Amino acid sequence: MKRLLILISFCLITINLFAQHQPGHNIPVDPSSEIWKKLRSLKYEEVNYTFLPKFSDEIKALDGKIITVKGFIIPMQEASNTTYFMLSYYPYSNCYFCGGAGPETIVEVKASKAVIFTSKAITVTGKLKLNKDDEEHLFYILENSSLVD
What we know:
Layout: H1 2-14, H2 34-40, E1 43-47, E2 50-54, H3 57-60, E3 66-75, E4 81-88, E5 106-116, E6 122-130, E7 140-148
């Protein structure tokens, strides 16, 4: 997770090349979203500068399931389209790495096809993988995901 945080920091510096910041645009994507309510309920602890998740039974039930989630792209690479990015419950200006949110508000996305960067919310579907011990990745990983029109 330490290397991932360094990469994310670098990406956040470069994101301004693509993002159009809109003042006052710090409202979560969908406060009533059931999937985000479950994901955001995650409890975790910090041990030796590493966050360790404590997945509830409700969250564990989602492991390996196909889910659909709406959020804001936080790119992980300097590209206008990518297959690897983070999806945030909050817009860029208020995301986990830039604002006061926590790691339970972001999902690591591995898309099957390139997604074009936008500052607007997008919806993706894919297989959710819970990550409890790999420091190089986030708690939530959405694999084989695709954009929902």
